[in-house]
Structure formats: structure tokens, C-alpha cells
Task: inverse folding
């Protein structure tokens, strides 16, 4: 793992968080908490050294967010499996990820988000860990009724570090993709008079590592559903 | 304003004779009757003796009427024996006992009456009489008050409230030679009737302010039959004030835009070697869901629009009811002001 890159990602996330906190007005703001449990169908597509691997499987977990006026602090955790999808070279993998995020919403339709995600895969062939920091922009809008809200998020990934080891060869040097970004589009439904929140979303991540014989192209996309409970205004 | 002066003698007599007698009153009455019987049978000295014993032994709470008769007959008998000073003293005691006392001209001869009048004019005292229990309408009637004095002079009559936060009072001054009655308006300076409560009616001699007569009155207002306010308007009378506005087509456009974005993400951003550039079912399904939500928002998002005509109509209903209730309240208040007052004597201090 490259300590320098990891520190840079953490620093960027912290910078977004501090910016958000400084921007919070002094007066008391509405506070709310919501927590959701959900699942997502995750698909991982990889071309490594000219070999294509595709795995997919369900991940389950939960998310929670604390809203303090225009500032949203949140976290998420998921765990699941990825199974080969017509690929002879792929292994069954177990996967998990945790994420911390902070978002500033100066206006209802616009948000600036920073997050830090740690994702890990484990299989008989070895262990792999990803450290991803993200800085993004969130656009959202109500769809006629206040209960219906669509959002779209695009994130640059300033630091992405992938490393790990195999059962046969110890890999100590991490890799960083030269092209990396993430996107998510979703819909939230918050029925009036009941404190529930339904969310469905599609998220997409792309990582292009250096060209050459050992070229690695990787994508991760997921469709998810969650049901949350909201407390507060 | 009707003058009810003819009520005065009845009122005075009824008050005088209706005074409750103490326990020994029958004995005292019997002694007085024996003394008067002696005087009637020309046993004047014996009668005087019996009367003197009686007045000496009269307790402080002896009936006023008995005390008056005893002193009056003792004075008259003393006068008949030529005991002028003694007669004057007893006549004076008679007046002190009751400034309203008057010898009956059918019983006493004119000389006795003249002697009584002379003694009365030399006695500094004042008395006050009102009906013990009466009901009057403050806007029509006035409260009849009788004042009696020994020596003629000016008398201040003051009616002052003794309870409650508002010290309302009515005051009048009059010249009284012997007995005088007058009407006391039960209105304060602003023309309003006195409020129910406890009052003290006082008569004070101008020449001797320390000599006064006081009566404690209680003024009450019997229940007034007032009209009830209108009940709240039935909700069925009101017209709807809001209606749903027109559909919001922009929500459909936004929904389709976000839905298209979801569907386009893997096509636009995906690596072609990894299947990018093709539609992906997960992305399409989410995009379709967002688009459908946007279309649903066209109907669900119709805002409520106020119907100004109905709002105005409903307000007019409320306003009209409030006006009617205000009129009822004013009429009730008027009734209360005009309602009769009951005035009862609680305590008398001669």
C-alpha cells in the first residue's frame, strides 16, 4: 500500500468535510437521521492480461445518514459474493466494502460530496484491497411530487489504490489506474406522513490501469434497492 | 322618573315593627303595657314610676320601638305633671332612640306635641331608613331613602362600595328639618348602574360629622335571560377553498432526463472492451423506474390552487355570523345593564 496516496485521499475527503462544516450556517438547522437496509446486485467485469473475467452476485448491507442543516454525514457497509458469469478463469469471491461520506447541500438540488471507501475481495486465489477516495457533485430534483426525488452523482476519484497478495506470489506493490471515475443515478421515494424512505439506484465505476501486456481494465456496476427509516424533519 | 314618596310611611313602619325582638321582649312589653295601663287609668305617678323602672332596666339590645314608646310616654306623663325638664330629656331620648319617632297627634295633645318638637330640635342625631328588601330597575327607578334628624341641618348621604376592586360611590346632600325622603340614583358618574356588591349607605350630619347612621346593603342582580350565541357554522355550509391545479409536465421531462442518464451511464462511460456502448439491463431498469416516477409526478405533483371566490364566500359566512353574535352580545349586555337590582339590608347602625 502506498501511504502517500492513501494520505492524499484521506486529506481530500477531510477537506471536503471541513468545507462543508464551515459552510454550515450558525443558526440551528433541521436535523434528521435515517438508516436503511438494502441489497444490490453487483457485477464486476475485468480484462487482465487479455483475459476477460466477469463475476456478479448479491451484496447486502446498510447505510445511515445524519443530516445537520446543509451537511450530511453518512456511512455504508455491504458484504456479499461474486460468482463467475460464464468465465472459466474466475474464482468465487467474497467481497465487502465500507464507506464514509460527507456531503454539503447548499441548495436542495445541488450537493458536493466527498467519500472514502475501502473494498476488499477474498478468494482461494488471494486477497485484494481497494482504497478509493472520491469527490463528486450531486444533482437532484423532485419529480412533481415532493415524495419523489431523482438524483445523479458524478465523482472523480483522486486516489485509488489497489493491492493485495495471491496464494502463490506475494504482491506488495499496489497499482493505481490512470482513468478512474464513478457515477450513480437513483430515485428516492419518501411517502408523506410515514417516515420511510425507498431508494433504488444504479452505480457505475470504471478503472483503466496502465497499458501494456499487463493491461488491466475493470468496471463495477450495481443496481440496488433499500428501505430506510427516517427520524426527524 | 316615578316618585314613590307614598311608600315612605309604609316602609318606615314596616321596618320599625319588623325588628326582631330579643328573648326578654315579651316581658318588657308586658311591663310597658302595665305602665301605660296605669297612665290610662289616671294613675299618672304610678305609671311614671313603672316607666322609669322600665327605661332604667332596658338592656342595650332592647327593641327600638319599645324604647321609643317608653321614653315618649314617660316624657308625655312627665310633661303632664309639669316636669318640663324631665319631659324634654325623655323626648330627647325618644329622638335619639329613633330620629323617625313622631307622637301620634290622635293620642297626644298639641302641647305635648309642641314640647316634643322643641326637644327634637335640640337633639343632635340622624337616622336612616331604606326598604329592607326591594327590587328596582336602575334605568327607571331610583332608590328611596328616608332621613330623619333631630336638630334641622344639612345631611350628606353617601353610598359607597365596600367590596370589589372598583370603589364606586354615589353621594348627595340635602337639607332635613325633621324627616325627609329622597330618591338616590343608583348610577355612577358614567351613567352605568352600580355593579352588584356590598355597599354602605351612610347619613352624616354636616354640623356633627361624628354623628351618623349607617346601613349595610347588598346589591345583587338576579339572573338575566340572555340570548344564546349562534352555534358554529356547519362545515357543509362552506365551499371548498382549494382545488388541484394543472398537471406538471416538467416532472415527466425531468424524470425522463434522469432516467436516460441512468441508462446512458454504462453506454457512455463504459469501456468498450468491457461491454461499454451497449445498453445494460440494470441501468435500463433503474432509468425506466425514474422515468415512470417522473410521469407519475405529472399527476401526483398537481399543486393545490386556492379558489378565491369560495374563500371570499366562506369569509362572508364567518363574518356574518360574527356580526350576528356581536349583535347578540350587545343586546345581552344591554339587558344586563337594564336588569333590575335587588337591594337587601344586611345590617343597620342607627
Result:
Amino acid at each position: 500500500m502506498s501511504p502517500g496516496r492513501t494520505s492524499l485521499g484521506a486529506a481530500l475527503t477531510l477537506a471536503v468535510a471541513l468545507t462543508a462544516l464551515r459552510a454550515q450556517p450558525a443558526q440551528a438547522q433541521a436535523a434528521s437521521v435515517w438508516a436503511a437496509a438494502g441489497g444490490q446486485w453487483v457485477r464486476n467485469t475485468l480484462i487482465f492480461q487479455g483475459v476477460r473475467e466477469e463475476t456478479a452476485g448479491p451484496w447486502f448491507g446498510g447505510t445511515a445518514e445524519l443530516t445537520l442543516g446543509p451537511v450530511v454525514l453518512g456511512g455504508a457497509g455491504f458484504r456479499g459474493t461474486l460468482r463467475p458469469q460464464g468465465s472459466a478463469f474466475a474464482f468465487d469471491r467474497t467481497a465487502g466494502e465500507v464507506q464514509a461520506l460527507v456531503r454539503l447541500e447548499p441548495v436542495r438540488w445541488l450537493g458536493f460530496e466527498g467519500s472514502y471507501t475501502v473494498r476488499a475481495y477474498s478468494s482461494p486465489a488471494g486477497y485484494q484491497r481497494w482504497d478509493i477516495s472520491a469527490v463528486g457533485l450531486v444533482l437532484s430534483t423532485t419529480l412533481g411530487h415532493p415524495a419523489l426525488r431523482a438524483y445523479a452523482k458524478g465523482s472523480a476519484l483522486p486516489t485509488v489504490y489497489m493491492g493485495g497478495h495471491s496464494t502463490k506470489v506475494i504482491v506488495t506493490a499496489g497499482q493505481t489506474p490512470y482513468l478512474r471515475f464513478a457515477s450513480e443515478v437513483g430515485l428516492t421515494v419518501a411517502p408523506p406522513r410515514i417516515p420511510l424512505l425507498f431508494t433504488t439506484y444504479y452505480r457505475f465505476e470504471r478503472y483503466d490501469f496502465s497499458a501494456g501486456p499487463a493491461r488491466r481494465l475493470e468496471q463495477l456496476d450495481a443496481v440496488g434497492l433499500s428501505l430506510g427509516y427516517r427520524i426527524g424533519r | 322618573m316615578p316618585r314613590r314618596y307614598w311608600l315612605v310611611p309604609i316602609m318606615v313602619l314596616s321596618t320599625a315593627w319588623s325588628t326582631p325582638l330579643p328573648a326578654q321582649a315579651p316581658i318588657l312589653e308586658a311591663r310597658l303595657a302595665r305602665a301605660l295601663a296605669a297612665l290610662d287609668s289616671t294613675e299618672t305617678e304610678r305609671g311614671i314610676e313603672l316607666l322609669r323602672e322600665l327605661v332604667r332596666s332596658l338592656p342595650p339590645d332592647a327593641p327600638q320601638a319599645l324604647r321609643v314608646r317608653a321614653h315618649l310616654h314617660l316624657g308625655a306623663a312627665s310633661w303632664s305633671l309639669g316636669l318640663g325638664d324631665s319631659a324634654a330629656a325623655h323626648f330627647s331620648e325618644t329622638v335619639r332612640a329613633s330620629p323617625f319617632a313622631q307622637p301620634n297627634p290622635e293620642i297626644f295633645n298639641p302641647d305635648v306635641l309642641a314640647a316634643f318638637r322643641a326637644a327634637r330640635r335640640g337633639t343632635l342625631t340622624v337616622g336612616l331608613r331604606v326598604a329592607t328588601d326591594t327590587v328596582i330597575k336602575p334605568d327607571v327607578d331610583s332608590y328611596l331613602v328616608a332621613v330623619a334628624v333631630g336638630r334641622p341641618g344639612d345631611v350628606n348621604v353617601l353610598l359607597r362600595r365596600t367590596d370589589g376592586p372598583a370603589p364606586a360611590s354615589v353621594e348627595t346632600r340635602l337639607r332635613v328639618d325633621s324627616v325627609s325622603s329622597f330618591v338616590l340614583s343608583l348610577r355612577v358618574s358614567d351613567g352605568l348602574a352600580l355593579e352588584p356588591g356590598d355597599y354602605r349607605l351612610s347619613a352624616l350630619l354636616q354640623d356633627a360629622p361624628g354623628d351618623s347612621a349607617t346601613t349595610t346593603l347588598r346589591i345583587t342582580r338576579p339572573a338575566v335571560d340572555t340570548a344564546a350565541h349562534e352555534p358554529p357554522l356547519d362545515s357543509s355550509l362552506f365551499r371548498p377553498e382549494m382545488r388541484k391545479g394543472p398537471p406538471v409536465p416538467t416532472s415527466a421531462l425531468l424524470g425522463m432526463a434522469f432516467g436516460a442518464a441512468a441508462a446512458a451511464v454504462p453506454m457512455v462511460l463504459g469501456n468498450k472492451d468491457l461491454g461499454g456502448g451497449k445498453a445494460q439491463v440494470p441501468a435500463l431498469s433503474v432509468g425506466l423506474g425514474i422515468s415512470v416516477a417522473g410521469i407519475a409526478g405529472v399527476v401526483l405533483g398537481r399543486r393545490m390552487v386556492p379558489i378565491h371566490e369560495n374563500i371570499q364566500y366562506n369569509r362572508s359566512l364567518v363574518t356574518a355570523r360574527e356580526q350576528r353574535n356581536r349583535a347578540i352580545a350587545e343586546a345581552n349586555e344591554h339587558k344586563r345593564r337594564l336588569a333590575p337590582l335587588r337591594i337587601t339590608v344586611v345590617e343597620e347602625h342607627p
Chain B touches chain A at residues 248, 250-252, 254-255, 258-259, 261-262, 265-266, 269-271, 273-276, 280, 282-283, 285-287, 289-290, 293-294, 296-302 (CB under 8 Å). Residues 1-21 of chain B have pLDDT under 50 and may be disordered. The first helix of chain B runs from residue 7 to 17. The radius of gyration of chain B is 45 Å.
